TrEMBL record:
Top-rank lineage group of the source organism: Bacteria
Family: Belongs to the purine/pyrimidine phosphoribosyltransferase family.
Protein name in UniProt: Hypoxanthine phosphoribosyltransferase
Cofactor: Mg(2+)
Keywords: Cytoplasm, Glycosyltransferase, Magnesium, Metal-binding, Nucleotide-binding, Purine salvage, Transferase
Entry's transmembrane regions: none
Organism: Nocardiopsis composta
Subcellular compartments: Cytoplasm
Entries under SUPFAM superfamilies matching the protein: PRTase-like
Residues in Phosphoribosyltransferase domain copies: 18-164
Entry's Gene Ontology cellular component terms: cytosol
InterPro entries: HGPRT, Hxn_phspho_trans, PRTase-like, PRTase_dom
Class of this enzyme: transferase
Ranges in a coiled coil: none
Amino acid sequence: MDAKDMGDDLEKVLVTEEQIKARLRELAAEIDADYAGKDLLLVGVLKGAVMVMADLARELHHPAEMDWMAVSSYGAGTTSSGVVRILKDLDADLKDRHVLIVEDVIDSGLTLSWLAGNLRSRGPASVEVCTMVRKPLAFEVDLDVKYIGFDLPNEFIVGYGLDYAEKYRNLPFIGTLAPHVYR
Ligand SMILES: O=P(O)(O)OC[C@H]1O[C@H](OP(=O)(O)OP(=O)(O)O)[C@H](O)[C@@H]1O
Ligand code: HPA
Ligand SMILES: [Mg+2]
């Protein structure tokens, strides 16, 4: 799917496919350096993080493992309910592992603060976070996010894994939707 498949549903592109690729390459280099000689478990948060995880993992030289967790706090709306549910738990045991949570977006920060706490309680050697997008509300939550793709303003975004009512995840860029789509 691309901009031309969106009719007039696309308002604007905020981050292009090329910008995403370039930034992921930089983040992967940092992660390779930081985890050199250590075992690394990437934890992708379904479904939004599928694209970041797939592209970041392929930029890494580190032989990292990948595991997945599904949590949901948004449902079909555009604001977080704050109630996080585990829909699918990890297969891996986190005891003494170096864990890197991979996210598409940190918005209110509610999902991640709950998730980081949950994973930390499982006895890992370390837990860090990599997100493609961080939004300004996240500053109000006490979160330590080590790897950040882009800081974007407080607008609802879609693409590169991010959905509106489960659609637009398969756009290769990140953008906003025209107001008529929400009505
Ligand atoms: O910082 P927050 O305000 O908590 O929002 C961020 C979370 O919300 C989205 O997931 P969602 O629950 O929509 O599930 P999805 O990944 O399947 O779209 C997104 O992928 C993050 O996990
Ligand atoms: O801006 C957003 N877009 C899509 N999903 C989201 N989940 C939290 N914030 C967003
Ligand atoms: Mg969502």
